[in-house]
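[stage:ingest] chain + small molecule (flavin mononucleotide)
[stage:ingest] validated
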Amino acid sequence: MSRDLRDWVARLRKAGELVEVTAEVDPRLEITEITDRVTKAGGPALLFRNVTGSDMPVLINQFGTEKRMCMALDVDSLDDPGRRIKDLIELQPPQGLLEKVKALGTLRELASFGAKDVRTGACQEVVHTEPDLTRLPVLTCWPDDGGPFVTLPLVFSRDPVTGARNCGMYRIQVVDERTAMMHWQIHKDGAAHLRDSQGRVEVAVAIGTDPATTYSATAPLPPAIDEMMFAGFLRGGSVEMVKCRTVDVEVPANAEIVLEGYVDANDLRPEGPFGDHTGFYTPVDEYPAFHVTAVTHRRDPIYATTIVGLPPQEDFWLGKATERMFLPLIRTSVPDMIDMNLPLEGVFHNCAVVSVKKRYPGHAKKLMNAVWGLGLLSLTRCVIVVDHDVDVHDLSAVAFHAFSNVDPKRDSLVVEGPVDALDHAAPYFAYGSKIGFDATRKWEGEGVVRPWPEKALMSEEVRARVTARWAELGIDVPER
Ligand SMILES: Cc1cc2nc3c(=O)[nH]c(=O)nc-3n(C[C@H](O)[C@H](O)[C@H](O)COP(=O)(O)O)c2cc1C
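[stage:predict] done
[stage:export] tokens:
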């Protein structure tokens, strides 16, 4: 596992997954245009060494392909962490001696994941108590963006009531040398900390950590689970945390750059517009100001960032990792959800395709309601439910069944409730309607259903016969 960002950069370089660009590039729009082309072509991570206006190199597209997302989590498949989580959840009281020994090992492993406090950290090799955010190579991503945005930050704060740590990834708009805007949306844990506070929350922002730790900031974990413990679980070793210099918050000791300060609920200002991961500009809205009290960094820091915009972008793979990792967890309370796909075109919150092995009338509709009751998945605008034998990742097969099997009146369900804060189609901010389509074969008892036809499929006997004779036929198309 990578120790820190620079170790990860070295791994990417060694694996031929990094291109270092020495030509001068402008963080205003130019890096976006270059990166957008590279990401959409499935290209490498980029390290821009010569960025106009800053002496820090910029790393981007580190997670931009499935291969690199797997490398980031040190797994062969994005399903692997989910399998580890499943094993942990399914830890039953051990029966025999051998099982007891095994269970002990798993528990010891679990206990070892917790973040570890250390006294010093490389992230404080250089300390600026007269901070100047404009010295960072912060990207202005799209032409109508309201300014430069820090796009890959790990934002740390504490619950003012319980003291529990949260780490979320919320973009930060730079306003001037010491002021920025904190875009934590209404449904997010950081925003809850501010609501529950006396008006101010101390915050520290880490930029550039090892990739598993960076990923963990994006994971939709409940407040009771420390993202840094989760990062430890993913990277196979505790994240070392060091206390900040001007605020009572800890950050990963090996982070490249840290912004320290406080977010003020009584200092709301316009944030945006921002070319968002929906593919559209998010309009200006009021968010709290983040007042920066110090900037610390390593010697020769690397600034890590990303761009979002019309998909596909790098964040698709962060989301895919979450989808695969959290499915086993979801299945502990919704075991009838066989599989799930959040397709690229749905930009996370607009569409979920789920499959079910139906056991009773209305089972597909029950699944829609389950999705609308689950954490951030509850914001999903469109849920399509297919039978278990349809591959949810094959969007052509999903569309075929949705187009064929749905009587709109009988098989759709429209509900109202919270929707994503970025949902521009909703009639109100963060509130609107959601729709489910039951694309399963219908059963008796699911409304008026005429006899359901069988799919026209060839018999196994004839398929085997033709397969055996395929070469003899001399037809030049691949055998299926
Ligand atoms: C690249 C990237 C940028 C993101 N930007 C934001 C953002 O600006 N505001 C926000 O509320 N969530 C943003 N998110 C989503 C949150 O990071 C995600 O919902 C996370 O689970 C929030 O953590 P929390 O549950 O601890 O609040 C972003 C995710 C990614 C991958």
